[in-house]
Design a protein that fits this description.
8 strands, binds N~2~-sulfamoyl-L-arginine, binds zinc ion
Length: 298
């Protein structure tokens, strides 16, 4: 089932206490409403490449934190040799719920809330789209300046403490991260930079090749889920100021994707709990293939 923020943080504490030697907590921000935005680092040895996972920047996309927490548990408890390889030969930095205030709001008030919960000056409307608030081509196109819109970019880049905190964390640790994945739903797509232009980044061929490996691996499973891929602006729509573009342009993380998980629209954001485990397993298969292919690039 889906859990509330409090349960997710209790789970983190339990895991941190149980796997003391290979885990470490970190906090990237205090939210507008004063909650910590917490993450967990999993590292079995020094010198590993680093993988950063951002999840639930959009409050209503519950499947993302359900998958991120399952992922944490798998990395620490699975005896599957492929998962052990992932766990022990990479450093994982996983933030299961970035938009903590919005997430709590979706549990208590409005299941379909997307944005943060910080009020906007001179507006009756509340909240900014975190995935338009990063300081990378902020507001150049395809984001809204209307505080009442669901893709409102905020009054200024980094106006949201959650986004500012993550940006600073990524920037100040840039040499640690080789891959960044931003978990979203829904659409069953892998989106690579750029979001602000249909021009493609220098390593576009590599990014599409790695995305293809993900889609193939997921497609091979008995669930039969189909994933498509492409650049954000090319395959979906303009989305400037998004996490992966900040990661690519400002934190020098050249393998980075938005992963739009299940489904393709039947249930949309309100994905029934019966989908959680299948979604987790196919995401694991996809990420495994993604990392293997990325590693082959050298
Ligand atoms: O609009 C978004 O922020 C993402 N889709 S969602 O339905 N989960 O809200 C897609 C963003 C993709 N673009 C970039 N990452 N640049
Ligand atoms: Zn989203």
């Amino acid at each position: 089932r889906y859990y509330e923020l409090e349960d997710i943080y209790k789970f983190l504490d339990k895991i941190l206490a149980k796997y003391l030697t290979v885990t470490e907590p970190f906090t990237i921000a205090q939210s507008y409403e004063g909650r910590p935005v917490r993450g967990i680092k999993i590292s079995y040895k020094t010198g590993n490449p680093g993988i950063y996972i951002e999840s639930n920047i959009h409050a209503r996309e519950w499947i993302t934190s359900a998958t991120a927490t399952w992922f944490i548990n798998e990395l620490l408890t699975s005896s599957d040799p492929d998962i052990r390889n992932l766990a022990e030969n990479y450093d994982w930095y996983i933030v299961p719920v970035l938009n903590v205030d919005g997430f709590v709001y979706t549990h208590n008030k409005d299941r379909l809330w997307r944005k943060t919960r910080q009020p906007v000056a001179h507006s009756p409307c509340i909240g900014t789209d975190g995935n338009r608030n990063f300081d990378s081509y902020w507001m150049v196109n395809g984001a809204s300046s209307d505080p009442c819109a669901n893709d409102y970019a905020g009054p200024a880049p980094n106006s949201e403490p959650e986004i500012k905190g993550e940006s600073e964390f990524l920037r100040s640790n840039k040499d640690k991260f080789n891959v960044l994945l931003a978990f979203h739903s829904y659409s069953q797509m892998l989106l690579s930079p750029y979001g602000h232009t249909e021009e493609v980044p220098p390593n576009n061929d590599d990014l599409l090749k790695v995305a293809d490996a993900y889609a193939q691996a997921v497609g091979k499973l008995s669930y039969g889920s189909e994933y498509t891929y492409g650049t954000s602006a090319g395959a979906m729509y303009y989305a400037p100021g998004a996490t992966i573009d900040f990661a690519y342009n400002e934190a020098d993380i050249k393998i980075t994707y938005t992963i739009e998980m299940r489904d393709t629209g039947r249930h949309g954001f309100v994905l029934p709990p019966t989908h959680i485990l299948p979604n987790c397993k196919e995401t694991m298969a996809g990420i495994m293939a993604l990392i293997k292919e990325a590693q082959n690039l050298g």
